[in-house]
From TrEMBL:
It comes from Luteimonas notoginsengisoli. The keyword Repeat does not apply. Keywords: Flavoprotein, FMN, NAD, NADP, Oxidoreductase. Its EC number is 1.-.-.-. Belongs to the nitroreductase family. HadB/RutE subfamily. HAMAP family: Oxidoreductase_RutE_HadB (MF_01204). Its cofactor is FMN. NCBIfam families: PRK05365.1. The lineage of its organism: Bacteria, Pseudomonadati, Pseudomonadota, Gammaproteobacteria, Lysobacterales. Residues 27-158 form the Nitroreductase domain. One of its GO terms (molecular function) is 3-hydroxypropionate dehydrogenase (NADP+) activity. This is Putative NADH dehydrogenase/NAD(P)H nitroreductase ACFOM9_08230. The keyword Oxidoreductase applies.
Length: 196
């Protein structure tokens, strides 16, 4: 990995990519498997990989999700071909003997305060959610990440009886260019970064 990506790829992933508010098209189950197969390679702390993804695609699943959505997110989410619930597993460390086998990493987390477990799970599942957005763009899909929903309702509908909690949602599909706003400004390097 010594060559930089060409400008067209950087445009697709970052510069020309947008958050869409309306979607069309269809997404095959094969594409969703391909998407996850890219996401899983993104780095996380001690390979904890706490994200758990629910690809809400069927009408029945959307009807379970609907009551949790804020009014402003309801219509666009119900119309999206797929909605991804990006969740995090508070028992992520149970998988560490497999995911991080060269040392006893599970013991690092056993008995940890819930606050620490939450920080690790939330931080790293958020990273994995960002990888999902970039992987979707790399596969030619558009995205609409959002947090306007009731996490308790999503957790009850999709994760009841588990240690998984919802983090954020991502609508997937072919974005309608008419649904986007003018690009908002970004901070310049000197406002957001420094080199020491």
């Amino acid at each position: 990995m010594t060559a930089a990506l060409p400008d067209a790829a950087l445009d697709q992933l970052f510069r020309a990519a947008r958050t869409y508010n309306a979607f069309g098209g269809e997404i095959s189950d094969q594409t969703l498997h391909q998407l996850y197969d890219l996401v899983k390679f993104g780095p996380t702390e001690a390979n904890t990989t706490p994200a758990r993804f629910v690809f809400v695609k069927s009408q029945a699943a959307k009807e379970k999700l609907g009551p949790a959505l804020s009014e402003g997110n309801f219509a666009k989410t119900m119309a999206a071909p797929v909605v991804v619930i990006v969740g995090y597993d508070m028992r992520f460390h149970d998988k560490l003997p497999y995911l991080f086998p060269h040392t006893d990493a599970k013991s690092w987390f056993e008995g940890s305060p819930e606050e620490r477990m939450y920080r690790v799970a939330l931080r790293n599942s958020s990273l994995q959610g960002a990888y999902l957005i970039l992987a979707a763009r790399a596969l030619g899909l558009d995205t609409g990440p959002m947090s306007g929903f009731d996490t308790d309702k999503v957790d009850e509908a999709f994760f009841k009886g588990t240690a998984i909690r919802s983090n954020f949602l991502v609508n997937l599909g072919q974005g309608d260019p008419a649904s986007i706003f003018a690009r908002s400004p970004r901070l310049g390097f000197d406002e957001a970064a420094r080199i020491e």
